[in-house]
């Protein structure tokens, strides 16, 4: 059976080449009631978002927000723009740090907590807004193998 020229067949898409149809999703992160790790001021939070590889399940840093000085309730301005593939489970991880220096090395900063979700959870939540509590002890730290278009977490 022939297909009209403007219709794509499934065989035309190559997932390795990234040609599966995707929708761009903008993720905004806000946090509430973060831990205060600073002695004489409030924390200076930074959020790092990780994506998990489909094949090897390794976590890869996707991006970082800006650092916001002296707040336990940051509304980060920098957004993460990710491709949403409807048929795939896309795991996300958000790690929060209290930045103590100009060093890009995350081990030089205080860990505040982390949250896990899938991109589908964000997109499918009411108003595309998802709240997740932070776990204070890292299940996965940087280097080891939350909200959406308006997502939020109780920390992410």
Care to give the gist of this entry?
This protein is mainly beta and 156 residues long.
Can you describe what's shown?
This protein has 156 residues and is mostly beta strands. The chain has a domain at 21-128: Sandwich (Immunoglobulin-like). The chain contains one helix and six strands, in the order ββββββα. The strands form two sheets. It has a four-stranded antiparallel β-sheet with strand order 3-2-5-6. It has a two-stranded antiparallel sheet with strand order 1-4. A hairpin with a 6-residue loop joins strand 2 and strand 3 (59-64). It starts with 22 loop residues before the first strand and ends in a 32-residue tail after the last helix.
Structure keywords:
single chain; 156 residues; mainly beta; Immunoglobulin-like; 4-stranded antiparallel sheet; globular; disordered C terminus
CATH architecture of the domain at 21-128: Sandwich
Distance between the termini: 50 Å
Question: Which regions contain 5 or more consecutive residues with pLDDT less than 50?
Answer: 1-15, 141-156
Based on helices, strands and strand pairing, what is the structural class?
mainly beta
């Amino acid at each position: 059976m022939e297909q009209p020229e403007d219709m794509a067949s499934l065989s035309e898409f190559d997932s390795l080449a990234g040609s599966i149809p995707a929708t761009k999703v903008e993720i905004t992160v806000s946090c509430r009631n973060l831990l205060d790790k600073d002695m004489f001021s409030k924390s200076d939070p930074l959020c790092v978002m990780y994506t998990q590889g489909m094949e090897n399940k390794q976590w890869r840093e996707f991006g970082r927000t800006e650092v916001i000085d002296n707040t336990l309730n940051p509304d980060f301005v920098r957004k993460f723009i990710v491709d949403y593939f409807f048929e795939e489970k896309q795991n996300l991880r958000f790690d929060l740090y209290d930045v103590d220096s100009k060093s890009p090395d995350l081990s030089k900063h205080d860990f505040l907590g982390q949250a896990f979700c899938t991109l589908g959870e964000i997109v499918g939540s009411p108003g595309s807004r998802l709240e997740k509590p932070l776990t204070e002890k890292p299940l996965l730290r940087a280097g080891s193998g939350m909200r959406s278009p308006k997502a939020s977490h109780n920390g992410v």
